[in-house]
Amino acid sequence: MSGRSPTATRLFWVAVIGGCASLRYGAPALSATGAACLAILLHRLDRPRRFRALVRRIARRHAPTLALRRRQECFVDAYGNTIEDGWLRERAYFVERTVLPLVGERGFSEDAEPRFEEMLAIVERVACAHELPDEVDTPEDGIAYERYCAERLGEAGWDARPTGASGDQGCDVIAEKAGVRLVVQCKRYGRPVGNAAVQEVAAAALHWSGQMAAVVSNAGFTPAARKLAGTTGVLLLHHDDLTTLAPTRRAGRRGLTVGR
Fold this sequence. Notes:
- InterPro entries: Restrct_endonuc-II-like, Restrct_endonuc_IV_Mrr, tRNA_endonuc-like_dom_sf, Type_IV_Methyl-Rstrct_Enzyme.
- It holds the Pfam family Mrr_cat.
- This is Restriction endonuclease.
- Keywords: Endonuclease, Hydrolase, Membrane, Nuclease, Transmembrane, Transmembrane helix.
- The chain is of the alpha/beta class.
- The chain folds into three domains: about 5-45; about 50-130, no CATH class; about 140-245, Trna Endonuclease, Chain: A, domain 1, CATH 3.40.1350.10.
- Helix content is about 55%, strand content about 10%.
- The protein is built from ten helices and seven strands.
- The longest helix is centred in the middle third of the chain and has 21 residues, at about 85-105.
- It is elongated.
- Mean pLDDT is about 80; it is low at about 250-260.
C-alpha cells in the first residue's frame, strides 16, 4: 500500500472492512460502506478549498505586517517604473518560512510545491486588502529627512538628534533610550539601499560607541545589504518602523572590521 495515496488507502480499507461487515449484516452494512466511501471522496474533492482557506488564515494573522512590508518594499524609480523586487522577495520569504511549515503540520505537504504560486497570490491579496493609515509625505531633502527620522524616534520615546551635515562619520542621527545608544544612517532614496550604507553605519556605531545601529530608508534594501546586515547586526528599517522601535543590546558582532 506504500505507493498509494492516503485517500486510496482509506477507500481500500473501508471497502475491505465494509465488505466483510456486509457478509454478516447485509444491506445496512453495505449502505454504510457506500456512505463512508462517498464521504472520503467528498473530503478529498474539498481539499483544494480547505488548503486555500488555511493559507488565507495564516496570511491574515500577519496582514498588518504584510501590508506594511508591501508598502515599504515597493517604490517608483526615477523613470516612473514601479519597482516591486523587494516585496516579491519578502512575499516568497513569508511563504517559505511561515506558511509552508504550518500547512505541512496540517497535512498539506503534498500540496505545497505544486501550489506555491497560488500561495503567493493569496498572500498578495491579503496584503492588498489590509488597509493601512495614510502614509505621511516624507521630506525630499536629505537633511530634512534626517530631522524627520529623529522626530519619529522621539515619538517612540527616544532622545534623538541629527548629528549635522559634516563630520558625522556615517551617522546622521544619534538616539538614546534606557541606556542604549542607537546610531542611524538615513537614506531618502528612489532605489533600494545597498550594502555600502550598512558598512558605513556599522563603522559609525564603533566610532560613536553605539549599542545599536540602523539604516533607515523610504525604499527597500538590496539582497547584499540584507545579507551584510544579518552578519553585522545592523537593523534595516523603513521610517514607519521608528515609532515602535525599542532599545535592545544586540548580541554578537556589533560592527565591521574596516580596511581588512
